[in-house]
Amino acid sequence: MRQHKAKAAENTFSILALDDDPIMTSTVQAYFQRSGYHVDVENNPLQAIERVRNGQYDILLLDFLMTPICGDQVVEEIRKFNRELFIILLTGHKTMAPPIRTIRALDIQGYYEKSDRFDQLELLVESCVKSIRQMRTIQSYQNGLSSIMEALPGIYQLQSAEHIMENVIQEVTGLLHCTGSVLVLDLVRCGMRHDEAGTRRYLSSAAGTQVSAPEESALEPLFQELEKNGRVTAEKKMTFPLTNGTQAMIGFLSVELKEAVGYDHLQLLEVFTRQVSAALSNIFLHELVQEKSKELDRAYSRLRNNYAEIITTVRDIVDAKDFYTRNHSDRVSFYAVELARRLGRSETYCTRLKVAGLFHDIGKLSIPDEILSKADTLTDEEFAVIKTHPVRGEKLLSGITGFHDILPTVRAHHERYDGHGYPDQLAGTDISEQARIITVADSFDAMTSDRRYRDSLGFERAIEELKREKGGQFDPALVDVFVGLVEEPGFLERAAKADHQGYDAAMWDKIEELKS
Hints:
This protein has 516 residues and is of the alpha/beta class. The chain has helices at residues 2-8, 22-34, 45-54, 71-78, 100-105, 119-155, 161-176, 216-229, 263-321, 328-342, 347-359, 369-372, 380-386, 389-397, 407-412, 433-447, 459-468, 476-486, 491-496, 506-515, and strands at 14-18, 38-42, 59-63, 86-91, 110-113, 178-186, 202-208, 232-233, 237-243, 249-257.
């Protein structure tokens, strides 16, 4: 009993003693105040109801037989506005107690038969105190969980680690009513820094009077202890590890409380640190992905610039091979793209067609100069060699992955709509539209350009030849659209400026977009 009294003195439980006998209430008050409780007395049942309504009482001790109303009536009124008050009914004799069903209906925790000893009553009060403590713990835990849920949006924001750490410190202080809190992250364990001399390894955030992160020399032993034991607790201090997605420790959260560490404190901080761990892991994963993305962007930029340089260099080599066809590939590319746009094709489609136009004659690089540069009429054998340039071009470009999607166009740009072209004698729509477009553009530029073996046919003659070969060499529908295009005012002036047209690296993005 003395042990209980010593413990009770540390508590703040309040009792209201109600009896119309002042001697009884005074006796009860004196007894329980010695046990450490705060005890108020009341001799009027009606006034007692108002005191409960306006006060903060944990336990009500009341007599059953009173005037002007009895104890069960008092309880009935109180239960209308207070369901949490613990009530013990005092009776002069057990035969005078209300029926069990009434006690249950009014949620009375017990009754006590009056005597000159209060031992049994004290046991009943102790039982109420234990239940109240449990209820307070449960309520505190529920409130804590609610606070954690309210704090999650601020913790899970994709902000910097420092910003999230400040939010965590602020939230945990309100959650557990801490006198101080510290959060420390090991950037090496987080995977964000290499363990190199001179680099910053730890991030820390602290709140509270005279509270700061431990010295760096003390951090590693603390990390090792937390990794071994899972948590470190003292009388009023708790330290929990923070982990990443693989449960590897990345930091810790430490709090100092106003009171001794309780079970509900441990449970709440464990739940909270799990959420903090997940939030911080998300942040570091996001930062890692961003950094890797930047690295990929830099590598991709170098790659596409190299690709652009390859296109420019190879095109210049092709043009340098034959003086009379110099800039021919630029104009073919221009005509082809303009025709595709008039047909309503996408920019990615046009970009791929542009590259195909630039490289459609690349196979001529492997044609002997004495044949390619011959001013006289070619022999059948020599023309047969010339006719191999589409296949040779396909083979040359096949070694570069970035050109694979234009290979069919390069191979088929000398196929005829009637099936009498080369190298595969494809006909009609078996020839890809891009190859059919290149055929029209290539033929028109060849007819309107001077060559070593003949002069330009001129614009009007070239148009006549296109129309004459509708359904023969050319796709009739494409010829109709192309003729309408080149006959527009200002078109040929724009075409003349297509010589040495630039190739920007953004084309690479459009090509990749098309592939995806």
